[in-house]
Specification:
The chain is of the alpha+beta class. The chain starts with 15 loop residues before the first helix and ends in a 5-residue tail after the last strand.
Length: about 150
């Protein structure tokens, strides 16, 4: 008696190379989506920070040029305030030739190690008419941008 054999699935060759390529392609696509997301975040941080960076430098130099050193001192970062006392900063700013006017000529914001940093190019005009160009670092600190470094 020759019984019938039950149904059996036909033999399919395994394709490990194809499976590996599909997995590698899927992984590469996932990495590209992550990189694109990171690039979009960086672009948003950099493009959205130009205004606040300019504003922080403008407030600082408005205080310096106007003689309101308390206002300017408040715009300094912690590192700069640790080097200068309010009285020392006041006497330093009031030392002739004093800054009488300023013009912000450029603002750039970059990210370094995932942290945004700004740099403001400013033309300082001193009493007597002499002018000089300075580049001023601006960093985010406690939710606001602050002037850091030696502006003079």
């Amino acid at each position: 008696m020759g019984g019938e054999r039950g149904w059996a699935r036909p033999y399919r060759r395994r394709r490990p190379v194809r499976a590996g390529l599909v997995l590698a392609g899927w992984s590469l696509g996932l990495c590209l989506v992550g990189v694109a997301g990171l690039a979009a975040w960086n672009a948003q941080v950099v493009l959205g920070a130009n205004g606040p960076v300019r504003e922080a430098a403008d407030e600082f130099f408005r205080g310096v040029a106007g003689g309101d050193t308390d206002r300017a001192y408040e715009r300094l970062c912690k590192a700069a305030r640790s080097r200068w006392s309010p009285v020392g900063f006041d006497s330093w700013v009031r030392t002739p030739p004093r800054v009488s006017a300023y013009e912000i000529t450029g603002v750039s914001v970059t990210t370094r190690s995932g942290r945004p940093r700004g740099e403001v190019a400013v033309r300082l005009t001193r009493e007597g008419g002499t002018a000089e160009e300075r580049k001023l670092p601006v960093v985010p600190e406690d939710g606001t941008w602050r002037v850091c470094g030696d502006p003079f």
